[in-house]
Amino acid sequence: MSGETLPLRLPLPRFGTREGEATALYRELRKPLVRYLVSLGLSGDEAQDVVQDAFVGLQRHLAAGGSQENIRSWLYRVAHNHARNRQTSYDRRFSAPLGEVDTMSDEATPERAVLEKEKFRRLGNAIRLLSERERECLLLRGGGLRYREIGEVLGIPTSTVGDTVERAIKKLAEKCNV
Amino acid sequence: MCDDSGRLIAWLDQELPEDEAAFVERHLQVCVGCQTRLVAYQQVSRTFDAYCDAEIASERRRSLPRWIPVMSAGAAAAVAVAAVFLTFPRGRVLQPPINSQTALSAATDPRMGAAHSVVALETPPSAVNRVERVDRRYAAVPARRRSAGAAPPEVRDVGALPAEPAIEITIPSDAVFPPGAVPEGVSFVADVILGADGSAERLRLQPRFVTSERRATRP
Hints:
The complex is a heterodimer.
Chain A: H1 19-40, H2 44-63, H3 71-86, H4 110-129, H5 132-142, H6 147-154, H7 158-176
Chain B: H1 8-12, H2 18-30, H3 32-62, H4 67-93, H5 96-108, H6 114-122, H7 125-137, H8 140-145, H9 155-159, E1 166-172, E2 186-194, E3 200-209, H10 212-217
Antiparallel strand pairs in B: 1-2, 2-3
Helix pairs in contact in B: 5-6, 5-7
């Protein structure tokens, strides 16, 4: 599953995009998409499957003469909906027992590791207090999507995205006391 | 809180129109509170992303293919079985009484036929050595206890070095006592236990009945 080539080699005559461009798109977006889906609560294998399905869907969409605008948000939206359909417990990711998330810094000093762990613990608590929509907005924002794209993925106005992101960040900052 | 703090996050995300962004930048130069909040929002954003990365890393570790631990357990089991098989022959040699008695009887009892001798000779040399090693370890004590038993102790057995730090020396009784003072066929065994500095820590004399073969050879 770690390959960087497209999962299917469907004919691309009407795509308006060459196969190399489609492969480049796959390379660019596969990891962020998997990251988003895993953050939503899917397992790594499930996320890989959903991303493959999304790219297959993109090829069909383009082959059927679908719009080539906003491909990134189109992929995120399809992956998001796939994930929602598959997911039995949507909040599983952020309802895991505290302390289960390891800190990232293996080379950190013990003191720094303790501080980082404490920071993660507080942040994990704060994330659990966010609404589902706020978490989704932050996750998509962390994936580099613009507010407009986030709105397209979630089907909400851009202004609502801005308000939601702002509210979520302020909540986290308040709870984490950073 | 400052009224303009609401647009800080949008400014951070480069989502504001140019004129609004310029306004926020001018405000940030004069408002310490908004500068502090901006730093806090940046930190929270970074920590949130790091948290997600850490979660994904944890998920990767959790979702290792199930056959990996199974394979590990299988490999460990295979190694354990192999170790048992490799050490098993050594374990079997640790049944010395039967083999040594048989060999000893076959060698000393004239009623035992050639077949028994052959059996004893057919024992692999390594196994014989190991059996001897096991016998030697307990040579001193059983030799004394067996004095009235079926298998008479040999003097050379007594001379074998025990595993314990003791030296056993057989002394003919006529070398210590006047003739007739000790019944014929009795000699003495001196157990000397040496201390760490080489001096004799303990000396003990015990009478021993010498075999008939040996008595027969005496003048």
